[in-house]
Amino acid sequence: MVRDGAPRTTIRPAGAVLAILVLAGTACARPGTIRHTGAARPPATSTSTTRPPTPSTTIPGDASPGSPGLGDTLLPASGNGGYDVSQYDLAFAVDDTSGPITATATITATASQALSSFHLDFRGYEITAATVDGAAAATERDGDELIVTPATAIASGATFTTAVSYSGEPPLVKDASAPGDIGWLDAESGRFAAAEPNGAKGIFPCNDHPSDKALFTFSITAPATMTAAANGVLVGQEPDGASMRWRFEQAQPMATYLVQLAVGDYDVIDGGAVDDVTIRHVVVRNLDEAARRRLDITNDQLAFFEQLFGNYPFATYGLLIADAPPSFALETQTLTLMPASWLADDPAFFDIVAAHELAHSWFGDAVSPQRWSDIWLNEGFATYAEWMWTDHAGYETLDHLAQEAHAQAPEWRDEFGKVADPAATNLFGPNEYDGAALVLHALRLTIGDEAFFAVLRQWFERYNGQSVTTDQFEALAAEVSKTDLSGFFAAWVHSTIVPPLPG
Q: Residue 22 pLDDT > 50, yes or no?
């Protein structure tokens, strides 16, 4: 994510471009000449979620309610205990670019305890039906919690399917942790999703926490004059009277806050491919031709980052250019949300933000935070990737950006505290962006380029599809670099004092 108006290091055109690195004997070339190396990309149809085998089931004699929350210190009401979701199948029907919707969410999960009832995060709407394993289930509301009581208690280890049908006007989610209104948002050209950090509950019933990633399918029925889009690959498009039904599949695990749904007056632009990654953009129909051509930068950026981090982890990528309020961009998995005004008003800024959001594909999307206090593992990594692209493209040198951040970092830590310990209201503050990118730059200076980029690649390869913690990153960095980094991380991540840059 990038917020409009957030404190950021200043980007200025540079006269010369600093060479980024030589990685494992392969020099980074200019965009368009880079070819990826490393392990093969996982097939688009993969359904592996790295979860342990389901234990044998038992008939519950002591079933109890699942917990309303997962104990996240920053967002304690987000997520729910007692089960682990493996699949969301979401079906939506809309008649216009605004107004009510009708929907059914079908959720496949495995019970981690014997459940007499369980919670789903869900705001607004009228519940029209609810079933568990095909049998009618009782529901009740408690704020943003939907409590589901099945006809029969669920055994620990059992896989069960919950279907919730609902209708109504999509509610806005307002939370002090969010960069603005989140949920399913309306704009002149159509609606779209912006759910980070806890806005998915305004779109569909869910376990709304990044620690519970799942696979997704989407079915969107809308007037045939509109275009629908969602995360993943388009797998079907069928007429239904005066409507069209669009079907999408996200076949790699995804956190709920990364869901994207868009319906309205959009065009789909075929952006070609980078190796075997299909590029497709979804843009408001009034976007002019010069702006559309600017989207070609995506192909260069993807090739550049593949060289640094490894193969892009999904089958497709593109930008959703919406006439959204110019408040933030969001790395919704495989289909990044970007305001059209940013592209029109400042193409250079747009390019740099686009690089940041694309880098989230590796760091934030494929590898997600286990808890919201680990957000620096998202934003710091994407910001450092943004710095490297900014240097590569000739806007500003990496060294200058790091020095500028280092000069401001004492003020950030005085105001916001430790990099790995933000307040809920500062999830998207400068400490988690440029301040965290500075940590990575200092790590690079400490262990050297070869070890540093090996750490980044191993981080992605080892934890692709999983949710991770700061402790895991610190352990992996020490393992890969063969260096005792306890003092480094104590100073750079867990302290309010900014050390001098190494070297």
A: no
H runs (alpha helix) in 25-68:
none
Record the tokens describing residue 227, joined without a space. 């275009």
Start-to-end CA distance of the chain, whole Å, equals 31
Q: Is the peptide bond before 369 cis (omega within 30 degrees of 0)?
A: no
Question: What are the structure tokens assigned to 417, written together?
Answer: 């505290």
> How high is the pLDDT of residue 37?
29
User: Count of CB atoms within 10 A of residue 17's CB?
Assistant: 16
Cα 127 from chain centroid (whole Å): 28
Q: Residue 21: is its pLDDT beyond 70?
A: no
Rounded Cα distance between 288 and 228, Å, is 20
State how far the Cα of 192 lies from the Cα of 339, in Å rounded to an integer.
11
What pLDDT digit, counting tens, does each position of 289-311 carry? 999 999 999 999 999 999 999 99
d(CA 153, CA 371): 29
- Write out the two tokens for 128: 């029209």
Report the predicted TM-score, pTM, of the whole model to 2 decimal places: 0.90
Question: Distance (Å, rounded) from C-alpha 253 to C-alpha 21?
Answer: 31
Grouping H, G, I as helix, E, B as strand and the rest as coil, residue 129 is strand
Q: What is the pLDDT of residue 327?
A: 79
Please name the amino acid found at residue 56: S
- Across the chain, what does the average pLDDT equal? 90
Nearest to 193 by CA among 148, 136, 147, 250: 250
| 68-120 pLDDT tens trace | 999 999 999 999 999 999 999 999 999 988 889 999 999 999 999 999 999 99
The angle, 0 to 180 degrees and rounded to 10, between the axes of the packed helices 398-416 and 434-447 is 120
Sign of CA dihedral 423, 426, 430, 433: positive
Query: What burial letters (b/e) apply to 241-269, b meaning 16+ CB within 10 Å?
Result: eebbbbbbbbbbbbbbbbbbbbbbbbeeb
Query: Reduced to 3 states, what is the DSSP secondary structure of residue 437?
Result: helix
- Give the mean pLDDT of 209-224: 98
User: Which helix (H) or strand (E) is 281 found in, with range?
Assistant: strand 277-284
Q: Which domains does the chain have, with CATH numbers?
A: 2-36+363-492 (1.10.390.10), 64-274 (2.60.40.1730)
Report residue 34: phi and psi, to 5°: -80, 135
pLDDT above 70: residue 51? no
The Cα 343–Cα 282 span in angstroms is 14
